[in-house]
Amino acid sequence: MHELTMEQLWSTSQLAGGNVAYIEELFETYLRDPNEVPEEWRQYFNQLPRVDDNVTTDIPHKPIREQFLLLSKNQNRAKPTSKSSVSSEFERKQVKVLQLINAFRGRGHQHAQLDPLGLMEREQVADLDLAFHELSQADLDTTFQTGSLFIGQDEATLNEILNALQQTYCSTVGAEYMHIVNTGEQRWFQQRLESVRSHPKFGDEVKKHLLERLTAAEGLEKYLGSRYPGVKRFGLEGGESLIPLMDELIQRSGTYGAKEIVIGMAHRGRLNMLINTFGKKTSDLFDEFEGKAHYNHSGDVKYHQGFSSNVMTPGGEVHLALAFNPSHLEIVSPVVEGSVRARQDRRDDSGGDAVIPILLHGDAAFAGQGVVMETFQLSQTRAYKTGGTIHVVINNQVGFTTNKREDVRSTEYCTDVAKIVEAPILHVNGDDPEAVLFVTQLAVDYRNEFKKDVVIDLVCYRRRGHNEADEPSGTQPMMYQKIREQKTTRQLYAEALVGSGVVTEDVGSQMEDEYRDALDSGLHVVKSLVKEPNEELFVDWAPHVGHEWTAYADTRYDLKELQELATKMQEVPEGFAIQRQVSKILDDRRKMAAGALTINWGFAETLAYGTLLAKGHQVRFTGQDVGRGTFSHRHAVLHNQKDSSTYCSLQNISEDQPRCDIYDSLLSEEAVLGFEYGYATTNPGALVVWEAQFGDFANGAQVVFDQFISSGEHKWSRLCGLTVLLPHGYEGQGPEHSSARLERYLQLCAEHNMQICVPTTPAQVFHMLRRQVIRPLRKPLIVFTPKSLLRHKLAISTLEELAEGSFQTVIPEVDELDPAKVERVVLCSGKVYYDLLAERREREQDNVVIVRLEQLYPFPEEQLLDALAPYTNIKDMVWCQEEPMNMGAWYSSQHHMRRVLQMQHPGLYLNYAGRDAAASPAAGYMALHIEQQQKLINDALTLG
Q: Cα–Cα distance between 617 and 294 in angstroms, integer?
């Protein structure tokens, strides 16, 4: 099972140096029939890099490389066909035979014996019948050319050809790969599948190891079932082949040099994986069942918990990480991808060789949840690719209680969605452990070779109901009648091994006893577990633990250095043609850097990123239009008007600067935000930012906010410093793009879990972004950013405010008003402040002050008290917002404001000025919008 590495084989004394001829002979035998060479050599030859006509791959064995090259050329050379060459009946049938071969390659999986229960309804495919190709039983003994079907054998009888095709494509393995456009990938699969008829011969030790892994998988479920009867555990019974599958995924990936594997999965089989794959201490699991476990947070149920450990493989130590996962099934997929990308970036692993994502899915969820498609679309994009993901579908053939295909999906297979990225799909019968082992090896090899996603569809069943307290026969009577009669996978395989003489019945029983004894001991049952893991590349979160949200951050920046940096950021390469309007923006920014113009929002924001990079902090920024900015305010990425090349000054600050990644994302919110959350939870030293095109677009990612961003720390002790920018503001653009739904995020706030900020000046956004990285606290930051304020004549700052200031959670009155005359305090956040200020100045009112709350959560009580302290004669206080009363900050924050008001002015009442409660966030008609806006401004400023 744990095959030797190439280097270990080559360095073995009796095979080294002068024995090249022996190796060539072995290789030639492998080319004829891989099953005729020893297993370790078959694995070695399988892992050799492919050699294309146009690619020379440097491997240490030149004679073998030449053999591969010769083979490739012979297989790829097309044989000319003319009308005269098919004129005879035989030659016409020869063409039909080749068409038959191609039909099996493309559709043989539809006749494969995939269902352990034998209940799967299979369509009769005409393409796979001899008659469809105008062939008959009378042709079975006729000899035809085989193309590449028989390596080393040019001809065979039709009967031999048909048997080979059925064994390869219609047995317990059903391979889908002909939808892949790349011919090289198709031929790779043909060679790997057809050379061993999809069933390679495994040695006795490998078979014994398979039986041991199945014994462990079944043994844990039996043990938990007897010790904790009726308790939910979402067991793996019926899908026990997952455990040997995962074992091979990990061990084989290790032989290729993998150092980390990140795994995401839902609840089915999770506890089994924790014990039998990750090596979780069995007594810890038993304590959780018995309610003895202690947490320093609110916690989560045991089948949602994450875990990590290190195991030894033939290629060295591998770190395993199982992601925390809520019950929203597939949402963990992009989170895992983000965590993997962060680890790859940390290791400078651009090819995805050292860190591998593995995602385990349920069949119904894989087919039904849109985030699966979104995650596939991430797989080859610049911002999100991770070198290919290995997907494993635990196909129970029933989703909760729904199993009729016409109810569960509209496609033949639950895996058909994977075809959108041309991922090969390997269907396999879970009751054939050796076939499971083979497709697992195939999947790892494919991912290593082509750096693309691959899917294993493990067709199995669910021996019990959705959970152990559920009675499934009420909704699936026929299926569960069959399941009750079905022997377990381990029983079937043990009987097969006893029958072939690989093991005796006593050995099988001994395995069961040893595993049960290991469980009773309460210790670890994974033999490959590394007890003292290498922590060299572990991320140290200790500096970020245990801080109050008020932890100080010095966000100042030397003025001279700031000016020099600001000037450098406007430099562009010689000959780089800039579009006219963009050139004007850069000219203005040069003036801003010199102090000749005040700083606007876009420049202050990019300066925040630049100053962080200059001091060694990584920046990652994604979203649908972040390079330019949805509202043309950022222009962090410039586009050459002559050749469409790009230039980013933030990536050219200095030669030794940290990474700065700015990517326009695909049109996805749910998967992209999940990815960035996963990245941020794995890289605490970076500023990780996601920006919505418009704030309301984040609605499509609400599950990420609900299940991860707002609650991850308190469920799983998972810190996260992700920053989310949501454009928000009422400018008469209708109900869709006015509101970022501030109320939703405030409703999620408790226990200091997030920061909700509404900055109104360029200096504020500069210091807020710097604060997010510089202070040790790691909390998600949700920012409601402006649209019209990006160019508002009053929304400006000076260089000195950037260099010397700090983020103000409350900004007091800016005009010099006599505090003794003030009768009303207006509290507000965001853009409405400038509307209030303009109206008050036009009215020349001196009895109303306007105080801005720049941070709504955690609520800045002390700072608000300080801002209100000068006003001892006020008669009332009003909260003004643009949003309707049932939206915005009113309902979620009024108790905070009232508490502060009562501290200084007992008996005064907090009033409301804003739009009336409404079903829609904003008016769609401009005239109505203006009327509503004028009314709320007047209500806020007019004393009753």
A: 36
Q: Return the domain boundaries, the chain.
A: 6-76, 204-521, 559-804, 812-941
Distances (CA, A) of 39 to 203, 208, 438: 7, 15, 12
Secondary element (H or E) of residue 236 = none
CB 603 within 8 A of CB 790: no
613 and 653 Cβ atoms separated by less than 8 Å: yes
Per-residue pLDDT tens over the stretch 40-81: 778 777 877 654 444 333 333 444 444 444 344 444 433 444
Structure token digits, residue 364: 């119904």
Q: Is 346 helix (H, G, I), strand (E, B) or coil?
A: helix
The C-alpha atoms of residue 92 and residue 157 are separated, in whole angstroms, by: 16
What SS3 class is residue 851?
strand
Q: Are 383 and 352 in contact (CB under 8 A)?
A: no
Q: What percent of the chain has pLDDT over 90?
A: 71
Q: Which residues make Cβ contacts (< 8 Å) with residue 925, sequence separation at least 6?
A: none
- Considering just the CA atoms, what is the radius of gyration of the chain in Å? 33
Q: Is residue 462 within 8 Å of residue 401, measured between CB atoms?
A: no
Q: Is the distance from CB of 117 to CB of 463 less than 8 angstroms?
A: no
As a whole number of angstroms, the distance between CA 860 and CA 550 comes to 10
Question: How many CB atoms sit inside 10 A of residue 485's CB?
Answer: 8
648-677 core/surface letters (b: 16 or more CB in 10 A; e: else): ebbbebeeebbebbbbbbeebbbbbbbbbb
According to the CATH classification, is domain 812-941 in 3.40.50.11610? yes
Query: Rounded CA gap, 942 and 848, in Å?
Result: 9
- Higher pLDDT, residue 298 or 671: 671
Q: Is residue 723 within 8 Å of residue 617, measured between CB atoms?
A: no
Please check whether the two domains, 559-804 and 812-941, share a CATH topology: yes
Average pLDDT over residues 366-394: 96
Pairing label, strands 316-322, 355-362: unpaired
CATH of domain 559-804: 3.40.50.12470
**Alpha-helix residue ranges (DSSP H) falling in 256-369:** 270-276, 282-289, 332-347, 363-368
Average pLDDT on 121-134 reads 92
Q: What is the pLDDT of residues 634-650, one digit of tens each?
A: 999 999 999 999 999 99
Mean predicted lDDT score pLDDT of the chain:
88
Residues 6+ apart with CB under 8 A from 225: 235, 468
Domain with residues 204-521, CATH architecture:
3-Layer(aba) Sandwich (3.40)
| Secondary element (H or E) of residue 629 | none
Q: What is the DSSP letter of 438?
A: H
Rounded to whole angstroms, the Cα distance separating 688 from 677 reads 8
Torsion of CA 588, 590, 594, 597, to 10 degrees: 10
Rounded Cα–Cα distance for residues 659 and 673 (Å):
20
Residues pairing with 622 in the sheet: 663, 690
Q: Is 7 helix (H, G, I), strand (E, B) or coil?
A: helix
Residues 435 and 441: their CA atoms lie apart, in Å, by 10
Q: In the prediction, which pLDDT does 233 show?
A: 72
The strand pairing partners of 735, in sequence order, are none
Strand partners, 332: none
Task: State the angle between helix axes of 559-568 and 580-594 in degrees (0 to 180), rounded to the nearest 10.
Answer: 160
Alpha-carbon distances, residue 811 vs 714, 760, 767, 893 (angstroms): 31, 9, 14, 17
Beta bridge partners, 426, equal 175, 456
pLDDT at residue 715 is higher than 80? yes
Token pair of 883, please?
């949003």
